[in-house]
Specification:
By secondary structure, this protein is mainly alpha-helical. The chain has helices at residues 2-24, 33-53, 60-74, 80-109, 119-141, 160-183, 191-212.
């Protein structure tokens, strides 16, 4: 039963991530519905393999992110640059929401929610439900980025604006990785690194938004 629920909730999580990505980058949800269902199923299989078959669960988020980048490039047919930006933004955004719920749940229930038989599914449900709501609000407000271009043959010219975005996304990924390793106990606490990554991310994201707003 635990494995069945894991598959169901993992599929919903990945589907929510694709919905969030489509909303954030102003893509037609219906147009990419079949791709989202197929990709969510594929990533669910990867997640199941990493947890129940292999011994790679500790680094599963990074493997899943790599698979997500490849899938959006191949299945959704976006240039690798756009695929990387979309994947990191959507996946890490979801990770931030889930991390907040995890911290809140651990504090309220005074237990490790992620390993609890029931609460871990409540955590997943709250996470993908929130991401769906955020994506829906972005759609309603028409607040997404009109930035990505569909098609693998698209030529990407690395302007100053794109370099700022690469810096913001890279620091966002580094921040996510560092916090994950910190929470896993694999690295020691270092507030200076956190402040540095947040500072880099804020600077590059501000400049990207300023450039695209001109």
């Amino acid at each position: 039963m635990d494995e069945f629920l894991f598959v169901v909730f993992s599929f919903l999580e990945f589907f929510a991530i694709f919905y969030f990505i489509c909303s954030l980058f102003r893509l037609n949800h219906i147009e990419f519905l079949y791709e989202s269902i197929f990709s969510s199923s594929l990533l669910t299989f990867v997640s199941y393999f990493l947890r129940f078959v292999s011994n790679l669960e500790e680094i599963a988020p990074f493997i899943q992110l790599g698979c997500l980048i490849i899938i959006i490039a191949i299945v959704f047919r976006f240039h690798f640059y756009y695929s990387t930006v979309m994947s990191i933004t959507g996946y890490v955004g979801y990770g931030v929401v889930q991390a907040l719920y995890l911290i809140l749940g651990n504090w309220i229930f005074s237990t490790d929610v992620a390993s609890h038989d029931v609460l871990k599914f409540v955590l997943q449900g709250a996470s993908f439900g929130t991401i769906f709501i955020i994506g829906w609000v972005i759609d309603r407000k028409d607040a997404g980025f009109n930035y990505v271009i569909n098609g693998k043959s698209v030529t990407v010219r690395f302007s100053e604006t794109k370099w700022y975005l690469i810096g913001a996304v890279s620091s966002f990924l580094a921040l996510f990785g560092f916090v994950y390793l910190l929470a896993s106990g694999l690295v020691s606490d270092n507030g200076l690194i956190l402040l540095l990554l947040i500072g880099i991310q804020t600077f590059t994201l501000y400049n990207f938004l300023r450039k695209t707003g001109e």
